[in-house]
Protein backbone atom coordinates (compact mmCIF):
# COMPACT_ATOMS: atom_id res chain seq x y z
CA UNK A 1 0.00 0.00 0.00
CA UNK A 2 2.87 2.35 0.82
CA UNK A 3 4.46 1.82 -2.62
CA UNK A 4 1.15 2.46 -4.36
CA UNK A 5 0.62 5.64 -2.35
CA UNK A 6 4.08 6.87 -3.41
CA UNK A 7 3.34 6.08 -7.05
CA UNK A 8 0.03 7.95 -6.83
CA UNK A 9 1.79 10.91 -5.22
CA UNK A 10 4.38 11.00 -8.04
CA UNK A 11 1.64 10.95 -10.67
CA UNK A 12 -0.19 13.80 -8.96
CA UNK A 13 3.10 15.70 -8.68
CA UNK A 14 3.63 15.31 -12.44
CA UNK A 15 0.34 17.09 -13.09
CA UNK A 16 2.02 20.39 -12.26
CA UNK A 17 3.84 20.21 -15.61
CA UNK A 18 0.54 20.14 -17.51
CA UNK A 19 -0.61 23.44 -19.02
CA UNK A 20 -4.09 23.06 -17.50
CA UNK A 21 -3.00 22.31 -13.91
CA UNK A 22 -2.71 25.81 -12.43
CA UNK A 23 -5.62 27.26 -14.47
CA UNK A 24 -7.85 24.43 -13.23
CA UNK A 25 -6.66 24.93 -9.64
CA UNK A 26 -7.33 28.67 -9.73
CA UNK A 27 -10.68 28.15 -11.49
CA UNK A 28 -11.79 25.83 -8.68
CA UNK A 29 -10.58 28.40 -6.14
CA UNK A 30 -12.64 31.04 -7.96
CA UNK A 31 -15.76 28.87 -7.81
CA UNK A 32 -15.28 28.17 -4.10
CA UNK A 33 -14.87 31.89 -3.40
CA UNK A 34 -17.96 32.64 -5.50
CA UNK A 35 -20.11 30.33 -3.41
CA UNK A 36 -18.57 31.77 -0.24
CA UNK A 37 -19.64 35.25 -1.35
CA UNK A 38 -23.12 33.98 -2.24
CA UNK A 39 -23.34 32.40 1.22
CA UNK A 40 -22.32 35.72 2.83
CA UNK A 41 -24.87 37.56 0.70
CA UNK A 42 -27.54 35.13 1.88
CA UNK A 43 -26.51 36.01 5.44
CA UNK A 44 -27.05 39.71 4.68
CA UNK A 45 -23.51 41.07 4.43
CA UNK A 46 -24.47 43.64 1.76
CA UNK A 47 -27.40 44.86 3.85
CA UNK A 48 -25.12 45.26 6.87
CA UNK A 49 -22.38 47.08 4.94
CA UNK A 50 -24.92 49.34 3.24
CA UNK A 51 -25.84 50.70 6.68
CA UNK A 52 -22.27 50.82 8.06
CA UNK A 53 -19.96 51.39 5.02
CA UNK A 54 -22.23 52.31 2.09
CA UNK A 55 -19.24 53.21 -0.11
CA UNK A 56 -18.24 49.51 -0.20
CA UNK A 57 -21.51 48.37 -1.77
CA UNK A 58 -22.83 48.70 -5.33
CA UNK A 59 -26.52 49.42 -4.67
CA UNK A 60 -27.83 49.88 -8.22
CA UNK A 61 -29.01 46.80 -10.12
CA UNK A 62 -28.39 48.16 -13.63
CA UNK A 63 -24.92 49.40 -12.69
CA UNK A 64 -24.04 46.01 -11.24
CA UNK A 65 -25.31 44.09 -14.28
CA UNK A 66 -23.54 46.43 -16.71
CA UNK A 67 -20.26 46.15 -14.83
CA UNK A 68 -20.35 42.35 -14.69
CA UNK A 69 -21.37 42.02 -18.36
CA UNK A 70 -18.57 44.35 -19.42
CA UNK A 71 -16.05 42.50 -17.27
CA UNK A 72 -17.00 39.12 -18.75
CA UNK A 73 -16.78 40.21 -22.37
CA UNK A 74 -13.59 42.22 -21.77
CA UNK A 75 -11.85 39.39 -19.96
CA UNK A 76 -12.68 36.89 -22.69
CA UNK A 77 -11.16 39.27 -25.26
CA UNK A 78 -8.03 39.76 -23.12
CA UNK A 79 -7.67 36.00 -22.61
CA UNK A 80 -7.99 35.26 -26.33
CA UNK A 81 -5.43 37.96 -27.17
CA UNK A 82 -2.99 36.84 -24.47
CA UNK A 83 -2.90 33.22 -25.46
CA UNK A 84 -2.86 33.95 -29.15
CA UNK A 85 0.48 35.53 -28.31
CA UNK A 86 1.53 32.30 -26.57
CA UNK A 87 0.77 30.35 -29.74
CA UNK A 88 2.85 32.83 -31.74
CA UNK A 89 5.71 32.38 -29.26
CA UNK A 90 5.54 28.59 -29.52
CA UNK A 91 5.43 28.70 -33.32
CA UNK A 92 8.41 31.06 -33.48
CA UNK A 93 10.41 29.02 -30.98
CA UNK A 94 9.72 25.84 -32.92
CA UNK A 95 10.63 27.26 -36.33
CA UNK A 96 13.58 29.49 -35.34
CA UNK A 97 15.15 27.59 -32.45
CA UNK A 98 14.13 23.99 -31.77
CA UNK A 99 10.88 21.99 -31.32
CA UNK A 100 12.46 20.48 -28.19
CA UNK A 101 12.00 23.83 -26.44
CA UNK A 102 8.19 23.61 -26.59
CA UNK A 103 7.56 21.45 -23.45
CA UNK A 104 9.55 23.89 -21.33
CA UNK A 105 7.73 26.93 -22.75
CA UNK A 106 4.29 25.34 -22.46
CA UNK A 107 4.89 24.46 -18.80
CA UNK A 108 5.75 28.08 -17.91
CA UNK A 109 4.11 28.40 -14.50
CA UNK A 110 3.71 32.19 -14.61
CA UNK A 111 1.68 32.10 -17.81
CA UNK A 112 -0.48 29.31 -16.42
CA UNK A 113 -1.21 31.38 -13.31
CA UNK A 114 -2.20 34.38 -15.45
CA UNK A 115 -4.60 32.16 -17.41
CA UNK A 116 -5.99 30.82 -14.14
CA UNK A 117 -6.62 34.35 -12.83
CA UNK A 118 -8.55 35.18 -16.02
CA UNK A 119 -10.69 32.03 -15.82
CA UNK A 120 -11.37 32.37 -12.09
CA UNK A 121 -12.51 36.00 -12.54
CA UNK A 122 -14.73 35.14 -15.51
CA UNK A 123 -16.42 32.34 -13.57
CA UNK A 124 -16.86 34.60 -10.54
CA UNK A 125 -18.48 37.35 -12.60
CA UNK A 126 -20.79 34.91 -14.42
CA UNK A 127 -22.14 33.32 -11.25
CA UNK A 128 -22.58 36.65 -9.46
CA UNK A 129 -24.38 38.00 -12.54
CA UNK A 130 -26.73 35.02 -12.53
CA UNK A 131 -27.36 35.53 -8.80
CA UNK A 132 -28.66 39.08 -9.31
CA UNK A 133 -32.45 39.14 -9.38
CA UNK A 134 -33.94 41.53 -12.00
CA UNK A 135 -36.42 43.11 -9.59
CA UNK A 136 -34.29 43.06 -6.41
CA UNK A 137 -34.05 46.19 -4.27
CA UNK A 138 -30.83 47.64 -2.90
CA UNK A 139 -30.96 45.37 0.19
CA UNK A 140 -31.26 42.23 -1.95
CA UNK A 141 -28.57 43.17 -4.46
CA UNK A 142 -25.18 41.38 -3.91
CA UNK A 143 -23.40 44.73 -3.92
CA UNK A 144 -20.44 43.61 -1.86
CA UNK A 145 -19.83 40.65 -4.23
CA UNK A 146 -19.93 43.06 -7.20
CA UNK A 147 -17.28 45.20 -5.50
CA UNK A 148 -15.01 42.15 -5.41
CA UNK A 149 -15.52 41.67 -9.14
CA UNK A 150 -14.10 45.18 -9.65
CA UNK A 151 -11.05 44.26 -7.55
CA UNK A 152 -10.60 41.03 -9.50
CA UNK A 153 -10.83 42.93 -12.78
CA UNK A 154 -8.09 45.31 -11.64
CA UNK A 155 -5.98 42.24 -10.75
CA UNK A 156 -6.57 40.85 -14.23
CA UNK A 157 -5.41 44.09 -15.84
CA UNK A 158 -2.25 43.97 -13.70
CA UNK A 159 -1.75 40.33 -14.69
CA UNK A 160 -2.19 41.27 -18.36
CA UNK A 161 0.50 43.97 -18.12
CA UNK A 162 2.81 41.48 -16.42
CA UNK A 163 2.03 38.90 -19.10
CA UNK A 164 3.01 41.31 -21.91
CA UNK A 165 6.32 41.96 -20.15
CA UNK A 166 6.93 38.26 -19.51
CA UNK A 167 6.13 37.15 -23.05
CA UNK A 168 8.49 39.77 -24.49
CA UNK A 169 11.26 38.29 -22.34
CA UNK A 170 10.40 34.66 -23.02
CA UNK A 171 10.69 35.10 -26.77
CA UNK A 172 14.37 36.11 -26.55
CA UNK A 173 16.70 33.20 -27.26
CA UNK A 174 19.30 34.35 -24.73
CA UNK A 175 16.70 34.12 -21.95
CA UNK A 176 15.57 30.72 -23.21
CA UNK A 177 19.12 29.33 -23.17
CA UNK A 178 19.83 30.92 -19.79
CA UNK A 179 16.77 29.23 -18.31
CA UNK A 180 17.79 25.87 -19.79
CA UNK A 181 21.32 26.29 -18.44
CA UNK A 182 20.20 27.24 -14.92
CA UNK A 183 17.79 24.29 -14.63
CA UNK A 184 20.42 21.86 -15.89
CA UNK A 185 23.09 23.38 -13.64
CA UNK A 186 20.87 22.97 -10.59
CA UNK A 187 20.19 19.34 -11.50
CA UNK A 188 23.86 18.49 -12.09
CA UNK A 189 25.03 20.18 -8.89
CA UNK A 190 22.44 18.17 -6.97
CA UNK A 191 23.66 14.92 -8.56
CA UNK A 192 27.33 15.80 -7.97
CA UNK A 193 26.73 16.69 -4.31
CA UNK A 194 24.75 13.50 -3.64
CA UNK A 195 26.60 10.93 -5.71
CA UNK A 196 28.60 8.18 -4.10
CA UNK A 197 30.46 5.78 -6.33
CA UNK A 198 33.10 3.08 -6.07
CA UNK A 199 33.59 0.89 -9.10
CA UNK A 200 34.43 -2.11 -6.87
CA UNK A 201 31.02 -1.91 -5.14
CA UNK A 202 29.12 -3.45 -8.06
CA UNK A 203 29.95 -6.72 -9.84
CA UNK A 204 29.71 -7.52 -13.54
CA UNK A 205 26.09 -8.02 -14.60
CA UNK A 206 26.41 -9.86 -17.92
CA UNK A 207 25.12 -13.14 -16.49
CA UNK A 208 22.27 -11.61 -14.47
CA UNK A 209 18.60 -12.27 -15.16
CA UNK A 210 17.17 -9.64 -17.55
CA UNK A 211 13.68 -8.16 -17.14
CA UNK A 212 11.87 -6.29 -19.90
CA UNK A 213 9.90 -3.05 -19.83
CA UNK A 214 6.12 -3.32 -19.64
CA UNK A 215 5.51 0.11 -21.15
CA UNK A 216 6.83 2.29 -23.94
CA UNK A 217 7.80 5.95 -23.83
CA UNK A 218 10.58 8.18 -22.56
CA UNK A 219 12.02 6.98 -19.27
CA UNK A 220 11.37 10.18 -17.40
CA UNK A 221 12.32 9.29 -13.85
CA UNK A 222 13.45 6.35 -11.71
CA UNK A 223 13.03 6.12 -7.95
CA UNK A 224 16.39 4.45 -7.34
CA UNK A 225 16.11 4.80 -3.55
CA UNK A 226 12.78 2.93 -3.47
CA UNK A 227 14.11 0.20 -5.77
CA UNK A 228 17.19 -0.09 -3.53
CA UNK A 229 14.93 -0.75 -0.53
CA UNK A 230 13.16 -3.53 -2.45
CA UNK A 231 16.54 -4.97 -3.48
CA UNK A 232 17.66 -4.95 0.15
CA UNK A 233 14.51 -6.85 1.18
CA UNK A 234 15.30 -9.52 -1.41
CA UNK A 235 19.03 -9.48 -0.61
CA UNK A 236 19.85 -8.83 -4.25
CA UNK A 237 21.38 -6.18 -6.48
CA UNK A 238 19.64 -4.53 -9.44
CA UNK A 239 21.27 -3.00 -12.51
CA UNK A 240 19.10 -0.50 -14.43
CA UNK A 241 20.48 -0.78 -17.97
CA UNK A 242 18.39 1.89 -19.71
CA UNK A 243 19.60 5.49 -19.70
CA UNK A 244 17.10 7.99 -18.34
CA UNK A 245 15.67 10.19 -21.10
CA UNK A 246 15.82 7.56 -23.86
CA UNK A 247 12.74 6.19 -25.59
CA UNK A 248 11.99 2.60 -24.61
CA UNK A 249 9.76 0.15 -26.44
CA UNK A 250 7.93 -2.66 -24.76
CA UNK A 251 9.98 -5.85 -24.37
CA UNK A 252 13.25 -3.88 -24.25
CA UNK A 253 15.49 -4.87 -21.33
CA UNK A 254 14.82 -2.45 -18.50
CA UNK A 255 16.88 -3.86 -15.64
CA UNK A 256 18.83 -6.92 -14.51
CA UNK A 257 18.93 -8.68 -11.17
CA UNK A 258 21.41 -11.17 -9.77
CA UNK A 259 18.50 -13.25 -8.41
CA UNK A 260 15.23 -14.30 -10.02
CA UNK A 261 12.35 -12.17 -8.77
CA UNK A 262 8.72 -13.19 -8.19
CA UNK A 263 5.81 -11.43 -9.92
CA UNK A 264 4.79 -9.41 -6.88
CA UNK A 265 8.31 -7.98 -6.48
CA UNK A 266 8.48 -7.21 -10.20
CA UNK A 267 5.19 -5.31 -9.96
CA UNK A 268 6.59 -3.24 -7.09
CA UNK A 269 9.78 -2.45 -9.00
CA UNK A 270 8.00 -1.50 -12.24
CA UNK A 271 5.86 0.99 -10.31
CA UNK A 272 8.97 3.07 -9.64
CA UNK A 273 9.71 3.69 -13.33
CA UNK A 274 7.96 6.79 -14.71
CA UNK A 275 7.37 7.04 -18.46
CA UNK A 276 6.29 10.07 -20.45
CA UNK A 277 5.74 11.19 -24.03
CA UNK A 278 7.78 14.34 -23.42
CA UNK A 279 11.05 15.25 -21.71
CA UNK A 280 11.92 17.79 -19.02
CA UNK A 281 15.37 19.11 -18.03
CA UNK A 282 14.43 18.92 -14.33
CA UNK A 283 14.50 15.12 -14.67
CA UNK A 284 17.29 14.70 -17.22
CA UNK A 285 20.13 17.21 -17.50
CA UNK A 286 21.33 15.62 -20.77
CA UNK A 287 18.33 17.20 -22.48
CA UNK A 288 19.90 20.63 -21.88
CA UNK A 289 22.92 19.62 -23.97
CA UNK A 290 20.59 18.45 -26.75
CA UNK A 291 18.45 21.58 -26.71
CA UNK A 292 21.32 24.07 -26.69
CA UNK A 293 23.14 22.09 -29.41
CA UNK A 294 20.03 22.14 -31.59
CA UNK A 295 19.69 25.90 -31.06
CA UNK A 296 23.28 26.35 -32.29
CA UNK A 297 22.73 24.08 -35.29
CA UNK A 298 19.47 25.81 -36.22
CA UNK A 299 21.14 29.22 -35.89
CA UNK A 300 23.78 28.14 -38.43
CA UNK A 301 21.23 26.95 -40.98
CA UNK A 302 20.93 29.05 -44.19
CA UNK A 303 17.35 30.00 -43.33
CA UNK A 304 18.28 31.51 -39.94
CA UNK A 305 21.96 32.48 -40.47
CA UNK A 306 22.59 33.72 -36.92
CA UNK A 307 26.18 32.85 -35.91
CA UNK A 308 25.93 35.13 -32.86
CA UNK A 309 23.34 32.82 -31.30
CA UNK A 310 25.54 29.81 -32.12
CA UNK A 311 28.49 31.44 -30.33
CA UNK A 312 26.32 32.10 -27.25
CA UNK A 313 25.11 28.50 -27.33
CA UNK A 314 28.71 27.21 -27.35
CA UNK A 315 29.46 29.37 -24.30
CA UNK A 316 26.59 27.70 -22.43
CA UNK A 317 27.75 24.25 -23.59
CA UNK A 318 31.23 25.03 -22.32
CA UNK A 319 29.84 25.81 -18.85
CA UNK A 320 27.69 22.67 -18.84
CA UNK A 321 30.63 20.45 -19.83
CA UNK A 322 32.72 22.09 -17.11
CA UNK A 323 30.15 20.80 -14.62
CA UNK A 324 29.74 17.42 -16.31
CA UNK A 325 33.42 16.50 -15.98
CA UNK A 326 32.97 16.63 -12.20
CA UNK A 327 30.30 13.91 -12.32
CA UNK A 328 30.97 10.18 -12.41
CA UNK A 329 29.93 8.12 -15.42
CA UNK A 330 28.01 5.66 -13.25
CA UNK A 331 25.39 6.15 -10.53
CA UNK A 332 24.93 3.83 -7.56
CA UNK A 333 22.26 3.86 -4.86
CA UNK A 334 23.44 2.88 -1.38
CA UNK A 335 21.78 1.72 1.81
CA UNK A 336 24.02 1.45 4.89
CA UNK A 337 27.12 1.83 2.70
CA UNK A 338 26.12 -1.12 0.51
CA UNK A 339 25.33 -0.56 -3.19
CA UNK A 340 22.03 -2.15 -4.19
CA UNK A 341 21.14 -0.35 -7.44
CA UNK A 342 23.29 0.67 -10.38
CA UNK A 343 21.92 3.13 -12.94
CA UNK A 344 23.21 3.55 -16.49
CA UNK A 345 23.99 7.13 -17.45
CA UNK A 346 25.23 8.88 -20.57
CA UNK A 347 28.98 8.80 -20.07
CA UNK A 348 31.20 11.77 -20.87
CA UNK A 349 32.58 10.23 -24.07
CA UNK A 350 29.15 9.62 -25.62
CA UNK A 351 27.80 12.99 -24.49
CA UNK A 352 30.61 15.12 -25.93
CA UNK A 353 30.62 13.04 -29.13
CA UNK A 354 26.88 13.56 -29.67
CA UNK A 355 27.26 17.31 -29.18
CA UNK A 356 30.39 17.71 -31.27
CA UNK A 357 29.18 15.44 -34.08
CA UNK A 358 26.20 17.71 -34.71
CA UNK A 359 28.20 20.91 -34.42
CA UNK A 360 31.02 19.61 -36.65
CA UNK A 361 28.54 18.57 -39.32
CA UNK A 362 26.74 21.92 -39.59
CA UNK A 363 29.36 24.43 -38.40
CA UNK A 364 32.67 23.14 -39.80
CA UNK A 365 32.62 25.68 -42.67
CA UNK A 366 32.58 28.70 -40.31
CA UNK A 367 36.05 29.70 -39.07
CA UNK A 368 34.76 31.67 -36.07
CA UNK A 369 32.55 28.82 -34.87
CA UNK A 370 35.37 26.30 -35.29
CA UNK A 371 37.64 28.61 -33.29
CA UNK A 372 35.02 28.83 -30.54
CA UNK A 373 34.63 25.05 -30.42
CA UNK A 374 38.38 24.55 -30.21
CA UNK A 375 38.57 27.11 -27.40
CA UNK A 376 35.84 25.19 -25.54
CA UNK A 377 37.63 21.85 -25.94
CA UNK A 378 41.00 23.25 -24.88
CA UNK A 379 39.37 24.89 -21.85
CA UNK A 380 37.84 21.55 -20.83
CA UNK A 381 41.17 19.80 -21.36
CA UNK A 382 42.84 22.30 -19.05
CA UNK A 383 40.15 21.87 -16.39
CA UNK A 384 40.44 18.09 -16.45
CA UNK A 385 44.17 18.08 -15.74
CA UNK A 386 46.81 15.57 -16.70
CA UNK A 387 45.81 13.03 -14.03
CA UNK A 388 42.61 12.04 -15.87
CA UNK A 389 44.10 10.31 -18.91
CA UNK A 390 40.76 8.93 -20.12
CA UNK A 391 39.03 12.32 -20.43
CA UNK A 392 42.20 13.83 -21.92
CA UNK A 393 42.16 11.21 -24.69
CA UNK A 394 38.46 11.76 -25.37
CA UNK A 395 38.93 15.51 -25.82
CA UNK A 396 42.05 15.03 -27.97
CA UNK A 397 39.99 12.81 -30.30
CA UNK A 398 37.32 15.49 -30.60
CA UNK A 399 39.95 18.16 -31.34
CA UNK A 400 41.48 16.02 -34.09
CA UNK A 401 38.06 15.29 -35.62
CA UNK A 402 37.10 18.98 -35.57
CA UNK A 403 40.35 20.07 -37.27
CA UNK A 404 40.03 17.29 -39.86
CA UNK A 405 36.47 18.31 -40.78
CA UNK A 406 37.47 21.99 -40.89
CA UNK A 407 40.32 21.20 -43.30
CA UNK A 408 37.85 19.46 -45.63
CA UNK A 409 35.28 22.29 -45.47
CA UNK A 410 37.48 25.43 -45.42
CA UNK A 411 39.50 26.17 -48.55
CA UNK A 412 41.40 29.24 -47.39
CA UNK A 413 44.87 28.17 -46.20
CA UNK A 414 45.21 31.19 -43.95
CA UNK A 415 42.05 30.19 -42.09
CA UNK A 416 43.30 26.61 -41.74
CA UNK A 417 46.65 27.78 -40.39
CA UNK A 418 44.82 30.03 -37.92
CA UNK A 419 42.74 27.09 -36.67
CA UNK A 420 45.81 24.86 -36.31
CA UNK A 421 47.65 27.55 -34.39
CA UNK A 422 44.89 27.53 -31.75
CA UNK A 423 45.18 23.80 -31.13
What is this entry, summarized?
This is DUF2254 domain-containing protein. By secondary structure, this protein is of the alpha+beta class.
Protein traits:
single chain; 423 residues; alpha+beta; Aldehyde Oxidoreductase, domain 3; 5-stranded mixed sheet; 16 helices; 8 strands; DUF2254 domain-containing protein
Please tell me about this protein's structure:
With 423 residues, the chain is of the alpha+beta class. It folds into 3 domains: 2-171, no CATH class; 180-193 and 282-326 and 346-422; 201-276, Alpha-Beta Complex (Aldehyde Oxidoreductase, domain 3). It has 16 helices and 8 strands. It has helices spanning 2-14, 21-42, 45-52, 61-96, 102-106, 109-131, 143-170, 173-194, 224-233, 263-270, 286-299, 307-324, 348-363, 367-384, 389-409, 413-422; strands at residues 209-212, 217-222, 238-240, 247-248, 253-257, 273-276, 330-335, 338-344. Helix 6 runs antiparallel to helix 7 (143-170), helix 11 (286-299) runs antiparallel to helix 12 and helix 11 (286-299) packs parallel to helix 13. The longest helix is centred in the N-terminal third of the chain and has 36 residues, at 61-96. The chain is flat, with a radius of gyration of 29 Å.
Amino acid sequence: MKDKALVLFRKLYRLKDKIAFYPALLAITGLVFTYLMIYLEERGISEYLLDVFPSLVINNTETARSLLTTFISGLISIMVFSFSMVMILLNQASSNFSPRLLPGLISNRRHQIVLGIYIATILYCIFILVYIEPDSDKYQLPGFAVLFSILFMVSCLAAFIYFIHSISQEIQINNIMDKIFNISKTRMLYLIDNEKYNKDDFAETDSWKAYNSRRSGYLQNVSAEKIAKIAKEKEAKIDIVVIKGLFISEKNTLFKCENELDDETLDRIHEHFDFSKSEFIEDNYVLAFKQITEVAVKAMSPGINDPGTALNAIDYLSQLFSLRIKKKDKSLSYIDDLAYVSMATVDFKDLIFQVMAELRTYCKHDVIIVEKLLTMLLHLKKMIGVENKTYQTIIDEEIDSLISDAEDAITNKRDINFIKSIS
